[in-house]
């Protein structure tokens, strides 16, 4: 039996993911720990009872003996590295929910931990694993070379907007060179130029809840819309395969590059011009504590 642990219960994902994982033969969500950044004391016990999770840990380290892998769901991305540390040093696989980190220094820190301890690191946005992405990728020969792509999605600039960037990466891959904040008209428009000259246009913060993508190729224009009910299952099934020791189509560098794209876009919006990913200072990023405080306040208001 593969035993999974939940670290932080901040978002709706722990509920959704627990139901999906417990339905997979040979998998059980066995333990949880909550840092109370969002929910009050006692929420962890109620959550465990509601979802039949046998162990509520008082300390994060207490979870190590009860799980084979862990999933980190905290909305304060500045704590993700500390949450991941005990599991990675123990050689246990982890899934870090999007955004995996929020600062450049934590990108380097996570990569160093991963390299030092060889434990699998997985996560980011589930949209990268959407069936529509896999289907379009399988038709690459028919579609032909992609010259430009436009990806659109809803939500705030970073915490939710990163879904759109990772969705695009699922099709066009990594290798971004520089980023330029282009315009703002109810949505934010960002140009990402790759080392090979390929251009990706991101439209973030669109006013309706839908993710879509348009590819411009030698054979014409190819469009895709994501079904929001279908991408969690492949995302989690891939994680379980990784825990089993099997190869999955994922590299931790991809969601971390997505984080850097958003940081570079923020700098371009502030200062103008092109921002090269290789030149983004290590102290730059987004404030995880501030976002967590806003998120918790919204939950208290019932939002």
Count of DSSP-assigned helices = 10
The outline comes out as: globular
CATH class category name of the largest domain: Alpha Beta
Number of domains: 2
Order of helices and strands: EHEHEEHEHEHHEHEEEEEHHEH
Number of separate strands: 13
Largest sheet at a glance?
Answer: 7 strands, mixed
CATH superfamily of the largest domain: NAD(P)-binding Rossmann-like Domain
Distance between the termini: 37 Å
Q: What would you say this structure looks like, in words?
A:
Helix content is 36%, strand content 25%. With 303 residues, it is of the alpha/beta class. The chain has two domains: 2-126 and 231-250, NAD(P)-binding Rossmann-like Domain (Rossmann fold, 3-Layer(aba) Sandwich), CATH 3.40.50; 131-229 and 259-284, Dihydrodipicolinate Reductase, domain 2, CATH 3.30.360.10. The strands form two sheets. Strands 12-11-7-10-9-8-13 form a seven-stranded mixed beta sheet, with helices on one face. The longest helix has 19 residues, at 253-271. The radius of gyration is 19 Å and the shape is globular.
Describe, in short, the structure shown.
This protein folds into 2 domains: 2-126 and 231-250, NAD(P)-binding Rossmann-like Domain (Rossmann fold, 3-Layer(aba) Sandwich), CATH 3.40.50.720; 131-229 and 259-284, Dihydrodipicolinate Reductase, domain 2. It contains 10 helices and 13 strands.
């Amino acid at each position: 039996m593969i035993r999974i642990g939940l670290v932080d219960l901040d978002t709706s994902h722990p509920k959704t993911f627990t139901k999906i994982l417990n339905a997979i033969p040979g998998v059980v969500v066995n333990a949880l720990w909550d840092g109370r950044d969002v929910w009050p004391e006692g929420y962890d016990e109620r959550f465990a009872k509601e979802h039949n999770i046998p162990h509520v840990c008082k300390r994060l380290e207490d979870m190590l003996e009860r799980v084979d892998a862990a999933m980190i769901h905290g909305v304060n991305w500045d704590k993700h590295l500390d949450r991941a540390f005990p599991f990675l040093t123990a050689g246990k696989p982890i899934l870090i929910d999007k955004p995996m980190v929020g600062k450049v220094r934590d990108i380097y820190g996570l990569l160093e931990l991963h390299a030092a301890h060889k434990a699998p690191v997985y996560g980011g946005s589930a949209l990268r694993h959407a069936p529509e992405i896999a289907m379009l990728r399988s038709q690459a020969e028919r579609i032909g070379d992609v010259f430009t792509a436009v990806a659109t999605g809803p939500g705030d600039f970073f915490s939710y907007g990163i879904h759109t960037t990772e969705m695009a990466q699922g099709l066009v891959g990594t290798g971004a060179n520089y980023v330029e904040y282009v315009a703002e008209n109810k949505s934010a428009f960002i140009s990402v130029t790759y080392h090979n000259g390929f251009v990706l246009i991101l439209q973030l913060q669109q006013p309706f809840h839908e993710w879509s993508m348009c590819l411009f190729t030698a054979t014409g224009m190819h469009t895709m819309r994501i079904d929001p009910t279908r991408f969690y299952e492949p995302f989690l099934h891939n994680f379980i395969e990784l825990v089993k020791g099997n190869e999955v189509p994922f590299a931790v560098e991809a969601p971390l590059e997505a984080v850097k794209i958003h940081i570079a876009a923020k700098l371009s919006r502030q200062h103008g011009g092109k921002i090269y990913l290789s030149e983004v200072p290590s102290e730059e990023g987004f404030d995880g504590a501030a976002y967590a405080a806003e998120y918790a306040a919204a939950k208290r208001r019932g939002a």
